[in-house]
Design a protein that fits this description.
Blueprint lengths: L28 E4 L4 E2 L2 E2 L6 E4 L10 E7 L5 E6 L14
Length: about 90
Amino acid sequence: MVKWTRAIISTPGVSRYVLRNDTIRPFSPFDVKVAAFNNRGEGPFSSIATVYSAEDVPSVAPKMVRARSLSAAEIEVIWEILPSLPERVLGYEV
């Protein structure tokens, strides 16, 4: 059975909510849904959207970094790619 966390936002002009939970691992998937309510009850829920908690920064740096000059206007930089990490790696910054 799925357990939902419920948050009541009692300001009708608000369209954003931030959930803080330090026990959640970085980049964990969540299913979310939203419903409006008033004094007469709760309206229908939105369709479920899957979102992810924030990512953590990579925990290690690339190794074996080497560079060489190719011309007056170009250099080549080479490194070993990072091993599989718990953090997601989208690319590198040189």
